[in-house]
Amino acid sequence: MRTPVLGCLVVAALLAACTGESRPSTPGPSGAPTGAGTPSAGQPFVVTPVATLDQPWSMTFLPDGRALVAERPGRLLLVDVVQGSTTAVEGVPEVVDAGQGGLHDVILAPDTGGEPTAYLSWVEAGEGVTGGVVGRARLDVTGTPTLRGLEVIWRQTPKTSGDGHFSLRLAVDPTGEHLFVTSGERQKMQPAQDLTNTLGTIVRLTPDGGAAPDNPYAARGGVSAQIWSHGHRNPLGIAFDAQGRLWADEMGPRGGDEVNLIERGANYGWPLASNGSHYSGQDIPDHVAGDGFAAPAVWWNPSISPAGLMIYDGTAFPQWRGDAFLGALSGQALIRVDLDGTSAAKGDQWSMGARIREVEQGPDGAIWVLEDGEGGRLLRLDPAA
């Protein structure tokens, strides 16, 4: 964006703080949801706090209505969302707990009628470097909840220095045949335009972690064969709509946060095009027609710091069926994006008084959100009377 930028200094350790990408902070009480049965001004929903957690980053629901919640420092919890009680899941891998790294996402594979299969993403160490990985395990909840047979099926390539922009959000397509993983550019920028690595990409894998054979760069072999799209910075939310289209939200630099329709082989421009600016104030060319890059469907300036993405298909809020919901970290809000086929437009932005890390739909159509940071709460949102 070609407007002057004031504020952030060019200090690598501080850059991320400008858009809410820093280590999570404790939510403040001002403006926080007030409890069951009390919608805040301007909110069309009632907010019910269910549990208090330690830096929760992701969640998913089991068929029985309980939820799995991943806490960034390395705990996976089974949550009774009626009682608000939590039980630690055993068999969770050791993670690198630093900066934006830790235990990232958890989802379930499509129901096969037996023990659920869980996919998890986390950060592991190398020789002075770190990298994201994805693992698969059976989830046994018959007694003490336990991950059994956990195996790593994919690794971010290459491992590198630093502790930011891992991304590592997961989604299985509606057919159940492909696993998609968002892979951030690790604050290195240029790798996002290099098809010989998987930094700054979204990869498309088979359920066992191999490259899908019909990927756009399959003929190149190696890790290039895993890539579905590239030119990404730090995509922290990914979800399919009812028609099978894939959407992702992505943190821009200083401004230029995005929601993108993810298409086969598309280049989303980072760091050569962005509707934001470098933290130093240095210009980045805006997205323009004909530049060869896929432009965002929706973008924000100033930053909201998007995290988590859910596309609603429930009945509790029928007016929002088919719309996308995302959390805002620096924006401390829940945001609705109006989806219409392949187009998108900004909808509502509701102040939540805390950084919102994750958004999910519950089995009965309620909307669930996770506040960021130490003491971050699991909140249930129901229609206001």
From TrEMBL:
Residues 20-42 have a biased composition (Low complexity). Residues 20-43 are annotated as: Disordered. SUPFAM superfamilies: Soluble quinoprotein glucose dehydrogenase (SSF50952). Keywords: Signal. Residues 1-16 form the signal peptide. Residues 53-380 form the Glucose/Sorbosone dehydrogenase domain. The keyword Zinc-finger does not apply. InterPro entries: 6-blade_b-propeller_TolB-like, Glc/Sorbosone_DH, Quinoprot_gluc/sorb_DH_b-prop. Pfam families: GSDH. PANTHER family: ALDOSE SUGAR DEHYDROGENASE YLII, HEDGEHOG-INTERACTING PROTEIN. This is Glucose sorbosone dehydrogenase.
